[in-house]
Amino acid sequence: MAGRPWWAANELLAFLLEVVALGCLFRWGFSLTDRLVPGLLLGCAVLAAAATLWGLFAAPRARFRPPLAGVLAVKALVLGGSALALYGVGHPTAAAVMGVVVVANTALAETFRRRTAPTG
């Protein structure tokens, strides 16, 4: 990571966005009912589905490596879904911020991955 501070910062931001996305999706699933146990079950189900999808297709060490369009589709579903989840639980401003940051982060990550590594 030496000589690549912007890349490292963007990768850290990507990881944090992924963790926040899972939390947002859990919260949305939890909010689908007024009852505690069904809410926990729904929250966990949404969280598990998103984490499984991510782990299979979008994680750095994903079990399956689809073409870039497939990876971006999974990222759009999970990360974009988290922004929609924020909106769904009544946080439209946070949802907009999350959406903008996710798009910028993903665009930068793909740009950094296509550039040659700096020397020195």
Description:
This protein is mostly helical and 120 residues long. It has one domain. The chain is 77% helix and 0% strand. Helix 2 packs antiparallel against helix 3 (68-88). It is globular.
Count of spatially separate domains: 1
Rg computed from alpha carbons, rounded to a whole number of angstroms: 16 Å
Total number of helices: 4
Tally of extended strands?
0
User: Which regions have little confidence, pLDDT < 50, spanning 5+ residues?
Assistant: none
- Please state the structural category: mainly alpha
The shape, in one word, is globular
Q: Provide the succession of SSEs.
A: HHHH
Write a brief structural summary.
The protein is 77% helix and 0% strand. With 120 residues, the chain is mostly helical.
Write out key terms for the chains shown.
120 residues; single chain; globular; 77% helix; mainly alpha
